[in-house]
Design brief:
The protein is an alpha+beta fold and about 210 residues long. It is about 55% helix and about 5% strand.
């Protein structure tokens, strides 16, 4: 029985895992259950109601995209793994992934502030701080991408490429005015290159 990935693909965390599963060559089914619209259905699978959730073939429930991907790396054939083996490359990959996930987190915070919190209760100084963190994360990520010729670590996309591209696509889709694509040409090019590939086209944002 294949693994079950639970969550909506408009979540960058869910999409990150879904795209990675395809690169890793691991069979899975995707169930687009929303933590908002289908709360009770999600709670029946994972009472914590956290996306993504991965249900293993023995019924074990995993959550948090980074922890899920850490587990999946161990399942994949060595030649399909998405983290570099060399220690220096691993450290750089973790830095890039950390920047991309920070950008995701700040994007989500801004979105939730505007969609879930009443306007009169928003704290603008805090929001501006979050926007600054978002801009800084992408500035540093752009510098990392600008060093690469093609993919970040050679001939094929690895987890750093996937997470950076997913994060950038999410922010550009949901907050197009927050960070200028024109000021991030290397990151924009990386994302466009990734989105043209079958693993991505078959995993569209909901």
């Amino acid at each position: 029985m294949p693994m079950r990935l639970i969550g909506m693909l408009d979540s960058p965390y869910v999409r990150r895992v879904a795209v990675s599963l395809k690169y890793l060559g691991l069979p899975f089914t995707h169930e687009p259950v929303s933590v908002f619209r289908h709360y009770d259905s999600f709670a029946a699978i994972n009472p914590v109601v956290k996306a993504p959730t991965l249900v293993l073939d023995d019924g074990t429930v995993l959550m948090d995209s980074t922890l899920i991907l850490e587990y999946l790396e161990q399942l994949a054939a060595p030649e399909r793994r998405l983290m570099p083996a060399a220690l220096a490359d691993l450290a750089r990959a973790q830095r890039i992934i950390g920047l991309a996930l920070a950008a995701c987190e700040k994007s989500v915070q801004i979105i939730y502030e505007h969609t879930l919190r009443p306007a009169e209760k928003r704290h603008e100084p805090w929001l501006e701080r979050v926007r600054g963190q978002l801009r800084q994360a992408y500035r540093l990520l752009e510098a990392e991408c600008a060093q690469a010729r093609g993919w970040l670590f050679g001939a094929r996309a690895l987890q750093a490429d996937i997470t950076a591209a997913v994060s950038w696509g999410f922010t550009q889709h949901e907050l197009p005015d927050a960070v200028s694509a024109r000021e991030h040409p290397a990151l924009s090019a990386l994302s466009a290159r990734a989105e043209a590939l079958p693993e991505w086209r078959s995993t569209p944002v909901n």
